[in-house]
């Protein structure tokens, strides 16, 4: 099974049992504190998330798998390069995992193929595959089956590969021998906690999603608190900061699959390019990408926040300020622009030195 998994592009597999009872208290406490924000589906699935055999009756083992996702041509200095993007006012940064093809389909297809190979070998097999799926406690299953330990940022970390990998699971109705958990290796380090721009890691191993830039820019559908907007910087979609700060990510591995090669637009992360996209262009350029899931309204809202933060930067060249202001005013003049987006645009324009944004109005 390990060699089949490797041929399919997985870096490691493991097997977890279905008794996650000792994870239930932590899950309930997290929900009770409201740390899941608007992710109501987390609450809806309740304790079923910690009970694989209730979610898929008949499940007795869970095969866990991880797949590295750094774009195949990533350089050894990738962490430094990503930090450099964040002080470049001309960029609007998309999280590294989202720069290639939508991993949901890639992983599901390959997990399905792995299940078929097992079935060919042993006969009929009850199974169901998951990846990044709300009802599954996948990081917990990965930890228990030895794919890594939970870092203080809550993500799964491997000594061989840092945390830059996707997780997937196959729920099986056959009993496989469980693989052993690994020990944790965060030690006294707290780099991720210190690096988090919004202090969303409220305690080691606890993230308040309501403060997390990944949640705010991807999952959250409303008006972003004005106190959080400056902290979002130029994060357009997702946030990698806690992973960029993690010393174990110097061992992160490039993807074996070309699917995770970064598309041209996401290599550049050019704010002005993104700002020029119409809704039709957004849909065309994000086809097959996970970014499409947020839709054009959230895309515009996030761009408005990035623009506001760019307009405050002294390093932003005057010509770019003008283009940004002109486009923001054009969106304001467009009857299709939603009230939520308008609110963020008005905030963004207030961040600019006044004469530039007045020029934008006059040119209209
Ligand atoms: S993803 Fe970003 S905002 Fe969220 S916990 Fe990590 S560093 Fe903080
Ligand atoms: S940055 Fe340090 S504390 Fe955070 S996950 Fe990595 S090793 Fe653990």
Automatic annotation (TrEMBL):
UniProt signal peptide: none
Keywords, alphabetical: 4Fe-4S, Cobalamin, Cobalt, Cytoplasm, Iron, Iron-sulfur, Metal-binding, Oxidoreductase, Queuosine biosynthesis, tRNA processing
EC number in record: 1.17.99.6
Binding site for [4Fe-4S] cluster 1: 186, 189, 192, 246
Subcellular location: Cytoplasm
Cofactor (UniProt): cob(II)alamin; [4Fe-4S] cluster
Domain 4Fe-4S ferredoxin-type: 177-206
PROSITE patterns noted in UniProt: 4FE4S_FER_1 (PS00198), 4FE4S_FER_2 (PS51379)
Pfam families given in the database record: Fer4_16 (PF13484), QueG_DUF1730 (PF08331)
Enzyme class: oxidoreductase
Binding residues for [4Fe-4S] cluster 2: 196, 212, 239, 242
Keyword field contains Oxidoreductase: yes
Subunit: Monomer.
NCBIfam families attached to this UniProt entry: tRNA epoxyqueuosine(34) reductase QueG
Protein name from the UniProt record: Epoxyqueuosine reductase
